Structure formats: C-alpha cells, structure tokens
Inverse folding.
C-alpha cells in the first residue's frame, strides 16, 4: 500500500504540474467531463502546499519525462519495434508528445499500447491512475452524488478483512471465512472454535497486505502433516506456532484454501483465480456491472493471481462471459505481448467461457446494493467455486489500468466512463449551491 500511495503522489504531482497549463478539449464527452472535474476540483482545490509542489516541479518536468521515457524505452523499445516496426526514436518522441498533451506518463505509453496509432488517436479518452486514485474517487465518496453521505463504517468494512467478512455474512453474501488471526504473537480464533486442527489445505496472507505479497499456502498431506509453498513442513498446530513467531513483524489471517470451479481448473492451475469486477451506481440509483477481468497466475512458481505480481489477465465480455486474449503489463513492462494460450500450460485462454456468469453478475449487483449502497463505485474481487461466486474483497479505489489494458482501449467514453461522469456531475450539484457556475455543469 505504501508503494502504491507513493506512486500515486508522484504521478499526481508530476501530471498535475502539466495539467495546470493544459487546455482540455471542448467536447462534451464523458472522458472530457472526468478530466475537467479533476482539473477543476482536485488541482484548483488542492491545498496550497500541494499546488506549490506542482508549480515547483514544473521546471523539472521535461527532465523527469526524459528520464522516464529513456528507462521504459530501454525496457520495452526493442520488443515493440520487433512487433510493430515502430522505431525506438519515434517511440521516445511519442512519449513526450503524450505527456505534454494529455499528462500520460511514459509507463502508460506502453501499458496502454499507445505506440499503436489508432489507440494513440484516442489518448484523451483514457482515465489515468493519478486522476482517479489521487483525487476523484475521494471526491465521489465525500459528496456521494447527492445521495446521503457515506457511512464511515463502510470504509472500515472495506479496509479490515474480519469486518468485511462479518458484513458479508450479515447480508448473506458468500465469502471466504477466517479461521484465525495471528498478530503480536497471539493466536485469535475467529471461525474455528474446535479443539482439533483442520484436516484441509490452508491459505495464509498478511492481515493488512495487498497484491498477494507475503501469501503462503499450507497443503494438508494427511496424518496431520502440512507442507508450505515455501518448502517448510509442520504438523498441525505447529503451523500456527510458526506464524505466531513471525507475527512480531507481520499479522496474518488463516483461511481455508478455496478451490476453483472445475471448469476453470486447467486455466488456473491449482491457484485460486479471481475476477476483478467493476460496479457503479447508475442513472436510476441502481448498481450496474460495467467491466470484468479474469486473473490467473503466470507460472507454477507463484501462488497468487495478482496482476501486479506478474499474473496474467484477460478481459471478460460482460454480456457473454467470454474471455479475450491474456496479457501482462503492470508497471509499464509489456514485452510479452498477448496470449491466446497460457504461456506455460498451453491451455486456451481466448474465447473461453467463464462458468456461472449470469449468477456472478447478479451476485456482484446484490453485494453492492446490500453491503455498500453508499459507495458510488467499487472494484470487487470474486472467485468462482463449484458452489458459485464467492466474495474475496472490495476495493473503494480500484485501479483502472488493468481494465483498459485488457480491453485494448480506453474506458473514458464507455459505460463505466459515462457512469463516472454522471456521478461526478451529481456530486458537483450536491457540493455547490449554484452548480451552473461549475465547468462540469
């Protein structure tokens, strides 16, 4: 989380310094409305210290962009030249142009494949990470589009895994149970009250972790013996003792290992695959699923499917539940391109149909309506088990890079962009007594 926040602050200040003097398009598209709201509300409304930081950063912007362009061209340039024929010099120059016109920094030139001329012609329709995560998500939460101000408890339910689990149980939303919490050298039972130790596989992850970092799996081998994904072995309660010793520095939650739906077994190895599902409040006050991405691990050496941990992602057609091509590309390293088949197992990804799709859509819409009706937009992580959809977690500031990367195009003027623009206009109306003076209205 600290790394993500640092990236968001740096990109906000760097891109904000550019945007202070950027003239946005005069069209009335959803994407332009979102950019305009960021420029007006977040930049103009920023604290004096933040605005000064952006102004101070301005003289250094060309040098920083040059350094970033050099780094990411070195990482990707040869592969892109081989794939597309576009020269390295031209790639380098296009990164400068995009940064100056749209505040799109060099990593995202490659993440969004803006070396492709057709995609670059729509550069203004991409929603940038810094706009959403460094400002507009909070703006939506603070004023909530004219609806009642969000309950402060919602943030706690989303942030804390045990609270989230209890909240899901309260509203009959299937979720992974937590057997124990291990922190500060204490073992705290949650959903496991029995005296004997479980005789099934366990999944352990840091209590406050993100991105799959620090996760481990303890597989049950029979006769009370467990083997960890890092090679250690232990008997029953010794597993908890090892975690208790480690909990001086890191708190853990211990859960049953969840098993993928049988239709996904060959695609996901034996690691749980999850679907990132975006839902947003619509024009009539309901909650609409707009986008989804299926995530799977890259190889047998990893035990999580997280995209920023090197996992593979594929867009899911919302209407049909059918997968597009798989890809990687987090953090601006995109040398692998696209996969119709999984690069390690050779299992077909492209055109695969996800099971229980209609049930999954209904499940997420019910979860948004029941659990967090006071939240405008949520990115859900959902697993598909043999028993049906299972909620893993909710994200109140979901990353949109993975959505735009996997669908091979911007979402600013697609359905999610339309709903974000609508809710931002409603939020402006809720904030100002005379909203007609606001450029968004």
């Amino acid at each position: 989380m600290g790394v993500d926040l640092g990236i968001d602050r740096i990109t906000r200040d760097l891109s904000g310094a550019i945007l202070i003097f950027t003239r946005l398009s005069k069209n009335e598209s959803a994407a332009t409305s979102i950019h305009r709201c960021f420029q007006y509300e977040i930049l103009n409304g920023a604290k004096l210290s933040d605005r000064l930081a952006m102004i101070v950063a301005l003289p250094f912007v060309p040098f920083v962009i040059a350094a970033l362009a050099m780094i990411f061209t070195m990482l990707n340039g040869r592969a892109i030249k081989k794939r597309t024929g576009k020269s390295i010099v031209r790639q380098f120059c296009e990164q400068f142009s995009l940064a100056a016109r749209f505040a799109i920094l060099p990593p995202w030139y490659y993440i969004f494949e803006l070396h492709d001329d057709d995609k670059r012609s729509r550069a203004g329709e991409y929603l940038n990470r810094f706009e959403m995560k460094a400002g507009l998500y909070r703006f939506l939460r603070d004023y909530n589009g004219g609806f009642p101000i969000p309950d402060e408890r919602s943030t706690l339910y989303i942030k804390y895994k045990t609270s989230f689990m209890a909240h899901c149980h309260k509203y009959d939303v299937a979720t992974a149970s937590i057997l124990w919490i291990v922190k500060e050298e204490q073992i705290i039972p949650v959903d496991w009250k029995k005296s004997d130790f479980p005789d099934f596989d366990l999944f352990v992850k840091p209590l406050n972790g993100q991105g799959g970092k620090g996760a481990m799996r303890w597989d049950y081998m029979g006769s009370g013996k467990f083997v960890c994904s890092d090679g250690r072995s232990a008997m029953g309660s010794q597993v908890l003792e090892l975690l208790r010793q480690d909990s001086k520095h890191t708190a853990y939650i211990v859960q049953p290992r969840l098993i993928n739906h049988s239709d996904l077994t060959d695609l996901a190895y034996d690691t749980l695959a999850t679907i990132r599902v975006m839902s947003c409040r619509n024009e009539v006050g309901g909650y609409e699923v707009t986008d989804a991405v299926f995530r799977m691990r890259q190889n047998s050496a990893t035990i999580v499917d997280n995209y920023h941990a090197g996992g593979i992602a594929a867009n899911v057609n919302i209407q049909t539940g059918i997968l597009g091509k798989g890809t990687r590309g987090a953090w601006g390293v995109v040398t692998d391109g696209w996969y119709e088949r999984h690069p390690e197992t050779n299992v077909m990804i492209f055109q695969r149909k996800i099971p229980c799709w209609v049930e999954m859509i209904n499940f997420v819409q019910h979860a948004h309506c029941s659990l967090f009706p006071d939240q405008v937009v949520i990115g859900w992580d959902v697993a598909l088990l043999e028993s049906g959809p299972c909620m893993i977690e909710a994200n109140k500031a979901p990353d949109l890079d993975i959505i735009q990367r996997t669908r091979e195009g911007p979402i600013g003027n697609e359905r999610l962009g339309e709903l974000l623009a609508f809710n931002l206009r409603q939020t402006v109306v809720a904030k100002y007594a005379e909203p007609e003076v606001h450029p968004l209205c």
